[in-house]
Amino acid sequence: MIGVTATDADDKLLPVANRGPQVAVAAPGVDILADAPHGGYQLTSGTSVAAAHASGVAALLLAREPKLTPAKVRHVLM
Hints:
Layout: E1 3-7, E2 23-28, E3 32-36, E4 40-44, H1 47-64, H2 70-77
Parallel strand pairs: 1-2
Antiparallel strand pairs: 3-4
């Protein structure tokens, strides 16, 4: 597990975002343009959005270096 919290465009923590020793990385998570119902788009915020960003980067790392261990992925992200 890699704990992720959310930051805004100024790299400040989202006020309601996770904090503490369980958080390993921060990722964009405030006013992110995302899909909305009925084929539209909306701005959304939260740690779920930030976790999606971090997961995408982790996937790209593993695509390039499939033998990376979870610990190495965490280290690179941090």
